[in-house]
Amino acid sequence: MPISIEPSSQSDNSDPGKPWYKLLSGYHWFVFIIASAAWLFDCLDQRLFSLARIPALNALAPAGTLPADVQAFGKVVTAFFLIGWGIGGLIFGALGDKFGRSKMLMLTILIYSLFTGLSFFSHSWFDFTACRFLTGLGVGGVFGLAVALIAETVPSGARVQALGLLQVLSTVGNVMAVGIKYLLDSLEKNGTITGGEGWRWMFLVGLTPAIMVVFSYKRLKEPESWLKLKNEGKLPKGSILVPYQNLVRSTRWRRNLIVGSLIASTGVIGLWAIGEYAVDLQNMVFGKYFTEQAALGKIAKTDIKLNVENAKTLAYLLNMLGAGVGMWLFTKVAAATGRRTAFAIGFVAALVVTAFTYWKMETPIDAYWMMPLMGAAQLGPFAGFAIYLPELFPGSLRSTGTSFCYNLGRFAAAGGSFFSAYLTKLFTTSDATSSLPLRYSAIAMCSIFLIGLFTLPFAPETKGKPLPSDEVAPPEPGFAPAPAGTPAKA
């Protein structure tokens, strides 16, 4: 099957003398803003969950529940959230190819907004977990739809930078979540809202992205390339499984699916099964540090908890600053030297920096310079997922392939979360306050980054190549033919 260039898919280096942002029209910016906002609020939802998870479980726990049991169930809830995330990605990725990127993007926003808001009404661990699972369905669908929409809409000379910036802006959602928590904590302290109920209001705030759908759904159109495929009858027909059948029947797309899945899973597991629990290490080492400071008379004993929370907040904000810088640096390297080189640098940095951070972090001062480095190293490759994954698949399967690769990692991360909990118990010592079990389990889990590194030699380099697209209609209902050849260089 011949491979053609989609209308908006020229080489990365088109109009090299013109800044990428000057290639965008008003409508291009509108699409970029809506898709980026969908992902930004998606990340806001994720961070609200991380911040409210333990307070919610403490408030909803049956009488007599031990703190250790609350912490353990926190990982169970996280696993169910990730499983819902993965399932949602698989479902909405395929629906995005069949029925349109913009339509499905609006639907996923409504789903994650609605069920985040419904978490406000939780009365037990069961219904809280159910709400998080259902929220995950919407959260999981957004990424593949948003990046496919941008990749197929903006000029190719701006594609890499626009997709990288989408990921950079996701850090804004994470920082907004911290600001929301700080505001609600203040309202709890002054009695404006009931003490211990701040977590409910955090989830209610998560309902607000639904407003964006009301103001944008009529103007947001499908990409011209997708409409062309629809008019020519080249979209997958039949059940929701057909796009996946099309992917695995073709040697080329199947290879890209495996490569993309392994690369994306490496980063997702690294973040959710390792990096996500850095806050637990901070609780331990910061608590010990400020307790010692109180014993020396440098702070009041009553201020220990406040100092710990303030130090954690600053460490997280610095982590997000590092993440934003790391993702933009990854984007620059990917555009200049190629996707494989950027991923190689990113995974090596993630392995070394993450292991070093878990090994050496002892004080808040350590965290203030280690966490930005870990943010840059761990989250830098996430810009690559937005850039690289849509470059691996044709227009009729782009949303499916991108979503599958990115969200398969959610299932793996759910398993990684359980395995991390197992390793922590395996390394447990007689000292219940020791941070060593958490440190050892995290350092052991860093070996996951080797999977990404070992996959890179098999990954196709897409720099300087157009997005692959379908040109010939499927010979049998519901199935696209296996493509032959490779994209011509621009």
Automatic annotation (TrEMBL):
It is a multi-pass membrane protein. Residues 31-463 form the Major facilitator superfamily (MFS) profile domain. Coiled coil: none annotated. Residues 481-490 have a biased composition (Low complexity). The keyword Oxidoreductase does not apply. It is found in: Membrane. Pfam families: Sugar_tr. SUPFAM superfamilies: MFS general substrate transporter. GO terms for molecular function: carboxylic acid transmembrane transporter activity. Residues 465-490 are annotated as: Disordered. One of its GO terms (cellular component) is plasma membrane. Its main location: membrane. The keyword Membrane applies. Keywords: Membrane, Transmembrane, Transmembrane helix. The chain crosses the membrane at residues 20-41, 72-92, 104-126, 132-151, 199-217, 257-275, 313-330, 342-361, 367-388, 408-428, 440-459. This is MFS transporter. It comes from Humisphaera borealis.
